[in-house]
Amino acid sequence: LFWRSKRQIGCEGSSYASELRAAAWTARELRGLRMFLRGIGVELSGPSVLYMDNEATVYSSTSLATSLKVRHLSIDYHCCRELTAWGVITPTKVASAENWADPFTKATDKITFWYLTDKMMISARATAVSVRSFLTWW
């Protein structure tokens, strides 16, 4: 699981554009990680799932019928389309109620915030227990 934060130098006019840029950057990172893992002998069984918050971005990344009319986004658009067609990524919509990044990136109500952060802590505890058991086995 990777997290990334970057100081923005500009402002996007739509959430579609910002989601597309983030998806393209993440897809390139996944392609690099997959090539690294294959290089050290790890077998990968299928494409990496790329969770997206914007349904329009998921649709344009997976549907052949779409065409992009905005020139400055075309590189990111074609990157997502190619990596999907090559089987490197599978773009998938994640609901806001299940999106772990939402408490860190936008205002959420108290119930959603505590639900998601509790879910993260349970996952972190389970990972720590599995790592601890592996280290005692090692």
Q: Roughly what percent helix?
A: 55-70%
User: What are the segments in which pLDDT stays under 50 over at least 5 consecutive residues?
Assistant: none
Task: Give the topology string: H per helix, E per strand.
Answer: HEHHEHH
Class by SSE composition: mainly alpha
Task: Please give the count of helices.
Answer: 5
- Biggest sheet strand order reads 1-2
Percent strand equals 5-15%
The general outline is globular
What Rg, in angstroms, do the CA atoms define?
Answer: 17 Å
In whole angstroms, the N-to-C terminal distance is 23 Å
User: What's the count of strands?
Assistant: 2
The profile of the biggest β sheet is: 2 strands, parallel
Q: Quick check: average pLDDT?
A: 77
What does this structure look like?
It is a single chain. The chain has a two-stranded parallel ribbon. The protein is 56% helix and 7% strand. With 138 residues, the chain is mainly alpha-helical. It is globular.
